[in-house]
Amino acid sequence: MKPLLIKTLLTFLVFSFTIIHLKAQEQVEKVNIQVNLDKKIGEMDPIWAWWGYDEPNYTYMKDGKKLLSEIASLSPVPVYVRAHSLLVTGEGTHALKWGSTNAYTEDSDGNPVYDWTIVDRIFDTYIERGMKPFAQIGFMPEALSSKPEPYRHHWYPGAPYEEIYTGWAYPPNDYEKYGELVYQWVLHCVDRYGKEEVDSWYWEVWNEPNIGYWQGTMEEYFMLYDYAADAVKRALPSAKIGGPETTGPGWDKAAEFLTAFLDHVRDDNSYATGKKDIPLDFISFHAKGSPKLVDDMVQMNIGTQLRDISEGFRIVASYPEFKDLPIIIGESDPEGCAACSVNDYPQNDYRNGTMYASYTAAAFSRKYELADHFGVNLLGAVTWGFEFEDQPWYAGFRDMATNGVDKPVLNVFRMFGMMEGDRVAINQEELAYGFLDVRDHSVREKQDINAIASKSDQGAAVMIWNYHDNNDLTIPDASISLQIEGMPGKKILVQHFRIDQEHSNSYTLWKKMGSPQDPSNEQIEALEKAGQLEHYTSPFWVESKDGMVEIELTLPAQGISLFKLDWE
């Protein structure tokens, strides 16, 4: 075949494919999203205003302090922060999945030596920003570990995960000394921050004791919990203590551990007091998704995370004694390892762009609905994603910012921060997925085009997303008619915010710059600006007709829009 004929044929094929693709987009049926502001379905509680991370010493570093300030400023309520390793031995050393405070050592005679300097520095950083500790009592100081050697691990991405479970993960060699450590810590916090402030915190015992984070037995964890809980209450009887922070209850062994823990609190005498007085002020467990590569494309599994949440809620709801207790999902994420970068774990190549953002919008909406479904009291869901100091730009860690520049996912939380008051009804009849469909089947066929809406005295807000488990940006745009009923009969100011490939997206700009690993000051300034939440259009006024406002929009794959409507 002649070269000219080949070139002509290829041009025709490309043109034909383009036409077919455009027609496919044009043929997507319009989606009608109907919001009824007069139908309250629950409170728009800020369950999203919770964050956590492995490396506590990042808290007071330059980029850590910057990100904490931004997280605090996006929320109308105090944000709770949970960090690992607050009691780990070491001079403030830090690395991936490692941190230390040297809070507890012993002298040559085995007497306790308490040094709260670094712990105070961490908590001070929170308090200065109006944030509050979700204080994790862990991990084991070297002097108290029943197997202290080796103590420090040197894990790196790609290394076996089991290498992190060193001396800090073992039960105490003396439970009385361990209890006294917790008692002294709480007393110190009350003295430093005041009773009223510490009363507003939450204290929890350890992390994922049903896997390698706890190198003891289940019964030994119950003993650990009892001594810690007793110590907290002796120091401050009004303090809030809970657990057990197990892994996702969708896994049978995690469900068994959570159930056994609740049975222990309900039925057994305390190991610390010998009495049937084990305190439990909230219940905590984790929930994770499970992405994988399919034909070199990232495929998320939002259903796996929602099944963890659903089973945890079901278990709690089965206990009349505990059903009304607050539930905190202590880690709630698309998968399980924030420090596992894309280079070594290519299935995590969703984290820099809009897929993480749209997943987050779709997942949090279903957390509210699952809590309603089981009639439980969901207080918070911790996003386990912070920042990583001194790492390459956009290395693909599960974080909110890279080198001080916000990623698209943080802008979803900025959107949630503008939603308050009551959650109101979305008509689900015309939409592809209800919350149980997503839980049971994930999002593998049609796109999940859906919304969450809120109403306050002076306004309303509607967040809409176009999510799919497949990270395929050739998925057709969604043509959407947003119909909002129950509007006051007056003019409404509408602001439209957008996250997509071109808006509120520092990652896209960084790639356009050529993916620099040493960006100039001018480039950094541009990236910081691109990392903020953007208006999609200028604010505009509409007038409701018969109590309804209708807005037409087109939303690309993995895109999110927020409409904020204000009236007087």
Automatic annotation (TrEMBL):
EC number(s): the record gives 3.2.1.37
InterPro entries (alphabetical): GH (IPR017853), GH39_cat (IPR049166), Glyco_hydro_39 (IPR000514), Glycosyl_Hydrolase_39 (IPR051923)
Q: Which UniProt keywords apply?
A: Glycosidase, Hydrolase
GO BP terms in the entry: carbohydrate metabolic process
MF GO annotations: xylan 1,4-beta-xylosidase activity
Q: Which domain of life, per UniProt?
A: Bacteria
* Residue ranges annotated for the Glycosyl hydrolases family 39 N-terminal catalytic domain, each copy included: 35-531
Does the entry feature the keyword Membrane, yes or no?
A: no
Spell out the catalytic residues. 208 (proton donor)
Q: Report the sequence similarity comment from the record.
A: Belongs to the glycosyl hydrolase 39 family.
Which PANTHER family does UniProt cross-reference here? ALPHA-L-IDURONIDASE
Q: What is this protein called?
A: Xylan 1,4-beta-xylosidase
Q: Which organism is it from?
A: Algoriphagus iocasae
